[in-house]
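Reproducibility note. Readers wishing to regenerate the assembly model reported in the main text can use the exact inputs given here. Chain order matters: entities are listed in the order in which they were concatenated for prediction.
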Amino acid sequence: MTEPLIVTRDLAKEYHMDGYTVVALRGVSLEIAAGEFVAVMGPSGSGKSTFMNLLGCLDSPSRGDYFLAGDRVSELSGDALAAIRNRRLGFVFQNFNLLPRTSAVENVELPLLYSQVPADERRHRAMSRLGEVGLAERFHHQPSQLSGGQQQRVAIARALVNNPVLILADEPTGALDTRTSFELMGLLQQLNRGGMTVVLVTHEHDIATFASRIISFRDGHVLDDRRVERPADAQEMLREFDKEAA
Amino acid sequence: MTWLASIRIALRALRVNKLRSTLTMLGIIIGVAAVITMIAVGAGAQARVEEHIKGLGTNLIMLLPGSVTSGGVRMGSGSRNTLTDDDSYAIQREIQEVQAASPQLRGTGQVVAGNSNWSTVFYGVTPDYFEARNWTLASGRTIEAGDVSGSAKVALLGETVAKNLFGDSDPVGQVIRIRKVPFVVIGTLERKGQSLQGQDQDDVILMPITTARNRVIGGNAARLRSAGSIFVKVRDDADMAEAESQIRNLLRQRHRLQPGQEDDFTLRNLSEVLAAREESSRVMTLLLAAVASVSLLVGGIGIMNIMLVSVTERTREIGLRMAVGARGRDILSQFLVEAVTLALIGGLLGIMLGVGGSFAIGHFAEWRTELNLDAIALAVGFAATIGIFFGFYPARKASRLLPIEALRYE
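Running the prediction on these inputs yields the following structure tokens for the assembly.
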């Protein structure tokens, strides 16, 4: 068996503020293999967001180890973490986080700006990624001229543009209506079928059913970790949804 | 990330908030313009002072007689009559650097013309006096060599004297009495204005030195040979210090002074006055520039203020950039470049305004202004420095944000 893409060993995170110590994560050990589609669930305060931030190298653990593709990430410095975020990870956020007054293609180019990619190639790669998420006609639209679903597609194109090994999606459907959510999940499933590892945080059960593995958090622990034999197919759900609507 | 990309991002960010960027720049624009204009005004004033003093004759050397010591009491400069007409002629004859030299014998007295009278100063001079002192006539003729050799009773009136004795009528050809000695007025002098010491230089009568000595002042035999003081004009292209030392040597020789013995005359020139005036106008320029720099400083604080607001406003953007791979130093350089761009664009507009302002002041206020390339370079350098200095704190603040906190910022 090949080495898992993600390995965490007793990963813990505590926050200190005003003399209080808030324990957000109390030692999580788990492995995620390349090509998995994992949904992380749990109520607010369960530690799922903290876990995601640690996986995304946006925060560093108080204790424990985190290996990404064999590299011990938990001991790296800020600049090295920035390089990992830049080259190996792709983020999709609930509120899209696109730069306002900046065209779709320039938004997608953003990660390449920080990895010394020449301007021509930047533009070329950004355009082809936008094409892949179905926004070939919207290159020069600004976020305010795009719908929520389209904005989230731009965000996905941006996450993909530097060929990451892992997509981290934090409540990506939180700001979208049901139909658009299905569309977006269809896109993520399609990427996953192509071999991309996806970790998704959600508190909606019907969104989690599209994943092949569901990890539930409570009070900083892993409460449940189960595989889904037959995940729901988002394309199919979308067709059914449209049929009902009609 | 390349600098070019940083600059493009900075320009885009500045364009997004056009009004705010313009207002922020205004501080720098006014500051730079003020510095350039003030330095131009100061330099103009300095140049004018220099010219003015040159007009007074910076290449003028004045020789005063030395002091006499009587029973241990030194009587001060001019207490002994050591200089003679011959000294003056010798200086003119023997020293190459000298353009003109003239003795000057001073006296005072009551002057009467018709039923007007006036108390004034008169000087006995030689024809070279006019060249030595850059003094020309307003009317009539000058004192000639024949007047000196014949002790002619002719006089030239300064403007003030002419006005007081004759009012508006022409004094040339009239007879006046100086200390009861009758003189014919042969001409009037061009107005010379105040001296550096504030004396009215036009309240004067000039006459041949021999006339003054023999017919008006009179006195003993020693005095009959003496000249009160000597005016020497050095050639424009000659070295003042060299001329001075030559004159000193010549006079020491003529007065038979032994080495080690004190000079029995005093040598003065106006270059010290010039230096003092230049210094004072330079200080003035510096002062103006310093006051103007304060506005640059205020402009810089404006930049810092806006950059801090901008960093706070764009915390989410900073978080996002960090999430997609920007390092702390990328964020630092982004905001620093933005601040410097703001300052530099402001600086360039400030130069235009400053240059325009200098011309406007020169044209409308008819003040002389002199644009100074150094001042312009200084102002731009200052603007950039201010951008870096006042941009650094906000930029560093941005670069130290934690990605996760920046992303969550509401």
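We highlight two features of this model. The first strand of chain B starts at residue 60 and ends at 65. Chain B has two domains: 3-52+276-408, 59-266.
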